[in-house]
Amino acid sequence: MAEVDIGMGKAARRAYELDDVAIVPSRRTRDPDDLDLSWEIDAFRFELPIMASAMDGAVSPATAVALGHLGGVGVLNLEGIWTRYEDPEPLLAEIASLPDDAVVARLQQIYAEPVRPELIGERVRRIRSGGVVSCGAVTPHRVEELTEAIVGAELDLLVIQGTVVSAEHVTKGADEPLNLKTFVRRLDLPVIVGGCSSYQAALHLMRTGAAGVLVGVGAGRSSSTRRVLGTGVAQATAIADARAARMRHLDETGVYVHLIAEGGMSTGGDIAKAVVCGADAVMLGAPVAAAAEAPGRGHHWGLAAAHPTLPRGTRVRVGTRGSLEQILLGPAPDDRGDLNLVGGLRRAMALCGHATLKELQKAELVVTS
User: Fold this and answer.
1) Whose CA is closest to 19, among 264, 344, 334, 233?
2) 22-315+338-367: CATH, from 3.40.50.720, 3.20.20.70, 3.30.70.100, 3.30.450.40
3) What's the whole-model pTM score?
4) What pLDDT digit, counting tens, does each position of 142-178 carry?
C-alpha cells in the first residue's frame, strides 16, 4: 500500500476511520424483513451481531440477560465492580454523581478492592440462570489467576481483553509471561482475544487458537489511549488489515476466525461499515451504556480509567436514550441514528442487496474524506 512521506526521514501509511468511508449500493435491493443478521462463534449462535462491551457502566448480570434475550450477548467484566463488591449499586450511584474532577481518584479507590473469585461464580450463574449465553472478560495479566473460578463457574465464552493484547510478551522479569497459544488451547471453552489493530498482531492472535479476535485500539469514547500513549489505528483500516490476516490464516489452516470490531461505532451505519470492512460482529460500549437498564446511570468508563498510576480515560456521560430494546430494535423518534441500531444495519443490507452478514462483507466501499 502506498505510503505518505511525513518528513524526509519517515513515511506513514494512510489510515481511515469508519466516517471516512461509505458503502456502495449494488444493482439489487432486498426486503429488510427477509435478511438474516445472525452469526455463530464455536457452538453458539446469536441472532444479532452485537456484543456489549465489558464495561461496568454498560453491562451488569441483569443487562447481560436482557441483551441475550434480544439476540446479542453481554460481556461482563470479571475484574470489575460486580466481582469486587457484594452489592455494587451504591457505588455505581456514587460514580454517576461525582464531580468531574473527582472521578478518576475515586475510581482508583473503588477498584483497589480485590476481585473475589466466589463472586465470579455467583455472577456467571445468575446470567446462565437467565437462559442466555454467559460471557465474561478478563485482562491477560489476571487470566491465569482467575482461571479456576472461571472454569468452576462454567462460563460459556471467555474474552481475554486489554488495550493491546499480543501473542508474544517479552519480559526480563522473574515471572513467566502468559503464553496465549498454550493457555487458549488448554481451555475447554471458546476464547476471544484482543484488542489489536494491525495485520501481524491479528495473525499472531489467530494462531493462538482463539475463536475470535477483537479489533480496535483506543477507538471508543471512554478511551484516551491515543492521546495518553500515542497508539492506535483508524478503525476502518484496522478491521480491513485484520480481515487480510484472517484470509491468510484461513488459507494456512482452514480455520475461520471471527473478527469483532470494538469501539468507534454509535449508529447502525457504523456497524454496517464495520461489517463491510470485514467484521463478523461488533462490540458496543457507549450505545449500551445509554440504555435505561444500564448500570452506569447514563455514564460509562473503562477499566483503564482506574489504573493506579496511569489512568486512560474517565467517566463519560452518554445520557439515557431509551430502553435497551429501543436502542437495538427501535422505534426511533429522530434521525440521529443512535436508536434502532439493528434497523439501520438491516436497512443498509437491504439497500445493498445482501441477505446475510457474510454477503455484506463483499460490498464495495468508497473513500469519502
Assistant:
1) 264
2) 3.20.20.70
3) 0.92
4) 888 999 999 999 999 999 987 556 555 544 554 556 7
